Amino acid sequence: MIKTIKDFDLKGKKVIIRCDLNVPMISGEITDDNRIRKSLPTIRYALNEEAKVILLSHLGRLVTNADKQKYTLKPVAERLSKLLNTKVTFIDQTRGERVENKIRNMEPGEIVLLENTRFEDLDKRKESDNDVKLGKYWAKLGDIFINDAFGTAHRSHASNVGIAEHLPSGVGLLMEKELKYLNKANTRPKKPYAVILGGSKVSDKIEVINNLARKADYILIGGAMANTFLKAAGFSVGKSKIEEDKISYCRDMLDKYPDKLILPIDLVTGTTISDEAETHVRFINEVGTDEMGLDIGPGTIKVFKQYLDKCKTIVWNGPVGCFEVKKFAEGTRKLLEIITSTKAETILGGGDTASAAINMGFKDKITHISTGGGASLEMLEGKELPALKIIDEK
């Protein structure tokens, strides 16, 4: 079992906390501060323990120096100050004399946020490629390292693995919560256990299917990836997006788990992906040659409900339709209504699934919504995450 922030004496210590403050912004304005709010419990805990708190985070992806203005963490520091009701000192550098002097003179209860760690990627991707010297430099700024950024736990970066290699380390309260629920889904889920898989590509979910098919009682398949499974089952899917090179895999899995993999029986179709599209509900043997399956249909929703109603654990990764377009969002919305009306423990992967649940008003009705799409996917694949492998054991 790995250490958490609660396993350390933080009083008077310089504690580096790697947060995930990668929030969406438009023209410098934060449009969704959910990730900032998720980081608050760990930061508050460190402050209450009289630590000197040094925050690191990435924001976006930088290609040129011109991106620095777009991806500065200054607005995040301002939002953090308001949410914590205390001053957060922002330093618009990732390293250097100003950084070192400020941290050297910090008092217990102070907070410093350094500039976007990915500014270092403009110099030979030093952050994302886990430059040894950069990780060691950041580590020298602190006494203890706490990783609370689940969204990057599947990556080996200088700001997570690189620092942890040189300091006593543990995970924060958010990371601890992520691991609690996702590990449970992998190792000891309450039965019956259903997994809903959606999204665009079978190829993105192969390892998840392989891993969870052995553990789950039912795997309900929707989204564009369902079209490839339907094609493998012998149905015509018109102009629906499919992966030709994965049809054989889908056929093999359907043969291997005929009572476990549950496919749609009807689809909402259209010829374009827009709110102006003319839509039809088609049984899976009725899809026209010029149509695309863009959402699960009402019959499928009823079938899925029969499985979900009896489950005690439900894990969902990937929306079951093009939910960004209102005409193709009903399947995802209805399934959210269904799972939140059950008594099951509900766990949603990050990314689009989390976005759909939050934007549709189900945020407070789900047991756990992950903050990391890629990281949660890899955990559901049964993989060990690099940023966790390096954390000290109790």
The total count of helices amounts to: 15
| Total beta strand runs | 17
Number of domains: 2
Shape: elongated
CATH class of the largest domain: Alpha Beta
Rg computed from alpha carbons, rounded to a whole number of angstroms: 23 Å
Task: Give the mean pLDDT.
Answer: 95
Identify the strand order in the major beta sheet. 5-6-4-1-7-8
Unreliable parts: none
* Main pleated sheet: 6 strands, parallel
CATH names the topology of the largest domain as Rossmann fold
Distance between the termini: 6 Å
The share of residues in extended strands comes to 15-25%
CATH superfamily of the largest domain: Phosphoglycerate kinase, N-terminal domain
SSE class = alpha/beta
What percentage of residues falls in helices of 4 or more residues? 25-40%
CATH architecture of the largest domain: 3-Layer(aba) Sandwich
Describe what you observe in this structure.
With 394 residues, the protein is an alpha/beta fold. The protein folds into 2 domains: 5-174, Rossmann fold (3-Layer(aba) Sandwich), CATH 3.40.50; 181-380, Phosphoglycerate kinase, N-terminal domain (Rossmann fold). It is 35% helix and 16% strand. It contains 15 helices and 17 strands. Strands 5-6-4-1-7-8 form a 6-stranded parallel beta sheet, sandwiched between helices. A 6-stranded parallel beta sheet has the order 11-10-9-15-16-17, with helices on both faces. α5 (132-140) crosses α6 (158-164), α9 (225-232) packs across α10 and α11 runs parallel beside α12 (330-341). The protein is elongated and about 70 Å long. The mean pLDDT is 95.
